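We emphasize that the prediction below concerns an isolated chain of 410 residues; any contacts that depend on oligomerization or on bound cofactors are therefore not represented. The input was used exactly as deposited, without trimming of termini.
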Amino acid sequence: MVRTGGLSLIGFVAWVLVTPGAAAAAQEAGAPGWGIAAYVCADGDLSSIGERYVAELQRGARAGGWPLALQVDRGAGAETNAVTRMVVAPDAGRPISEAVDVGAQGNVATANAVAAFLHWARSRVPAERWALVVFGHGASAAGRGADRRRWNSGPAVAVDSSARDVLTPVELAEGVVGGGGVDLLVLDCCFGAGVEVLWELREAAEVVVASPSRLPAAGMPWGAVLGTAQSTSGVTAEGWALQCLAVAAGGDGGQATPLIAVRPAGLVTVAEAVQVLAETVAAEPEARVAAVALGRGLCRDWGAERELCDVRELCCRLGGTSDESLAEAAKNTVDAIDACTVGHVGVEDGCGLVALMPGGLPRLPEGYGSRQDGFAATSGWGELARLYCGRQQDLMRRTTDNPRRGDDAA
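Result of the prediction step, given as a token string:
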């Protein structure tokens, strides 16, 4: 159980979301409260699941009194219009639907498409604060989805199968900022908690909820999440995020869905701490890269091909080394991560903030870290990962060339 400020996670969420004073005051003042914008990318093999996802969103929004503006992409082969928008008002009857021409051959995996949707949502729903939900196939920093398909050369947060395009974190961030920004962003996709993803969103949202893992195909249980809370301005983005975590902590049969809630703006400090860590390792590579490899070997693997590592878990392990400089740099990184983490569930030894550092075959995708303003380049994580992979590849070659030296390659 994650604890926040001395209260259990669920207890804290209940206090934040249903404290009578804040909610009643907001309602009496006539504040418009929160609006939900849902960007549902459900064409291809998500078509039938997407229909159920939309129905669950609508049910939860009605139960909790949340005004909902959503867009669903059913793909070019859909019997109805490929892209449809609708508004679900708490005090209205059936949802008001309208077909949409999103342009660019119906491609919803673009920054312009996201921005246009958010502008439309604001024009239809009066709200003081906004939560944006993005549903679809996600890909890790290696570009692979949960089914090991390579969707992209880097991370993705949704896929438009009909257009054969992916929505990258950079495009999502540009679209959200261009659409006026949001207070809370929920990435209802696999591997959204990659630091390479969250780094791009640091100016797009106050809080982001995402998973380091493969999420259930049906997505978040929005009926439970939204049915518990009320759409008032007294609800904070962090309180909203913790409600998502509290529901995930119940899971299916008691198995928690791994989730993290993070303030992405704080990743700037994390990048600075990682840069010191990377420079510390590079200063004495022979011994310190070996320490990184040992620590990585003890960490839980994330990703479809074991390519992701929990940054906090790795740094906690490095913080226990006898090398004082390395330990200090690692502990400072842990502190920076903790400072921007709102909460997490379903993660035992880390926090769910993952980055590319393969635990299986030690290979990095071509071009990883090539974006100069991306996290891997800015923080030095890309160079740290290359040092680690280089050492592991060298050990594999030595072991293959001389099998009798295998015991030395540990």
